[in-house]
Specification:
- By secondary structure, the protein is an alpha/beta fold.
- It folds into two domains: 34 residues; 183 residues, 3-Layer(aba) Sandwich (Beta-carbonic Anhydrase, Chain A), CATH 3.40.1050.
- Helix content is 52%, strand content 13%.
- It has eleven helices and five strands, in the order H-H-E-H-E-H-E-H-H-H-H-H-H-E-E-H.
- The protein has a five-stranded mixed beta sheet with strand order 2-1-3-4-5.
- Strand 1, helix 3 and strand 2 form a beta-alpha-beta unit.
- The protein is globular and about 55 Å long.
- The N and C termini lie far apart (50 Å).
Amino acid sequence: MECQEGLDKLFEHNRGWAERHRAEDPGFFQKLAHAQVPDFLWIGCSDSRVPANEIIGLPAGEVFVHRNVGNLVSLTDFNCLSVVQYAVQVLRVGHIIVCGHYGCGGVQTALGADDLGIVSNWLSPISDMHAAHRKEIDLLPSAPAKTDKLCELNAIMQVRNLCRSAMLRNAWQSGQKLCVHGLIYGLEDGILHDLNVTVNRDGTAEAVFRSALARIFQTPGRVVD
């Protein structure tokens, strides 16, 4: 009975949502059913507090979304790469956003000593990032500051990984207009911040990455736009 009650609430919310959209735009769902033409691919964290469409104020149909724990982009993750390929080659999006968030549980888990099995394995790239930059991160005054800095670093590194993929390099080499952006979201205020790691052509990713990396370690606290 409890299971059905949970579903009933979802159906109730769904009907209310659908009715509101029909009231605002009677043809809304017909247009959505015909085709999707998003300009954005969002690669973000699975955290329930970071819903892509709501954060950037865009309706259904405007954002193609891939989410996983820790907003990781792995060149061996065929789930993520399939989403990227479809977004770039079929939907022809103009922008890919890699978005981390402050207070990320995935980052906190990667910093912990507990072995959580598959989750720990998945998050091992973040643990490796921490080890590689431990000297800079350890200079920060508190555990939350260290976690937040690693959240910024993680988003930047995922932009770098994505720009190294054959799909993006081929798209740029063929003349396709495509920008990749690294952003970070604040849970406490709902504000997105630009990590200044935007890449729009092949061969520039490493220089952009180095500049962004130097910038985040020049500031003791959170990134400032």
